[in-house]
Amino acid sequence: MVTTGMTQNPEIPVESILRDELAHGDVVLGTIGPIMGHLLANHDHSLFSDEIVSRVRGMITDVARQLLLALAEAGENADPRGFAQEHSAALTEQMAGHPPFLCHCHAMALEWHLTERLERRGTIDRVLSPLLQSLIASDDTGTASTAMSALAAQARFTQQQQRMELPIRELPGDLFHHALLSLAAFAGPQAELVCRDAQKALRERYDESSSRLGLLTRLVLGMGNGSRAALSINHAGVALWLTALSMASHQDRDLTIVSTNDRQLARLALGLRAAGLKPAEVEEQFVYIHPHVSLPEGFDMLRADRAAEMLDASGSTGSGWQAG
Question: Where are the domains of the chain?
């Protein structure tokens, strides 16, 4: 918890308001895994709409099919696609029981939902943002090349989300490793050798640094002090903005995505302030994401370091969102 009795840092009223809202948001975060684990739809909550649940189910099923296809091909199965189709439901159910994997799929669905919503308003292109365009035109060949690769990856992301797909190569490293372990558990000891061959083939095709998330991270890191420009969602675009905000506020990117939901307003405000944005700049970001929401009175008194401390003290700080 943040110590409030220190005379040099007395808590101002807005901190108490935001702390209560953040605690409430943490409770909501703690329910996401169990609810999504049972694939329940809550029609009154944008976190669990039918569309979000269907998209999460589709992505998990897609990953399961890719794993099974690799297993069938390694075992020289006569009908690899048929094998994958036959067993995908069982592996999907097994993989859905892993909270970090489930939460990642949920975050991807929410990112796509935000991307579509802002594009429908005619505000932000889902693929090419002004910042990405300028990075592509950079005189630095490395930056330009990475930006072009990120553009292509973002274009693929939009197509994949429309088809409710999630390529294994796009998984973060820890979740890719979990996927391989899930395949081994599914295959069992009787298919251990074949499974090893399948895992080897999958590893050979995997390069986290070349994934969409890896490329976005490299772009933000490469911008150095100029990365502050990526904290403007209308300038950076949703994908690059989420990555920059995650890095600047020291939060897991998936959690940063969830903070854009209307039940996580305090976390979003604190994250933006902790990232170094001035109160007026935080308000500007809210105009794009939550145009009908006003920041609490006294927010302009909240210091960036205090916002960071409040986030650090939160019960949900990493992937899996286990509120304490």
Answer: 13-312
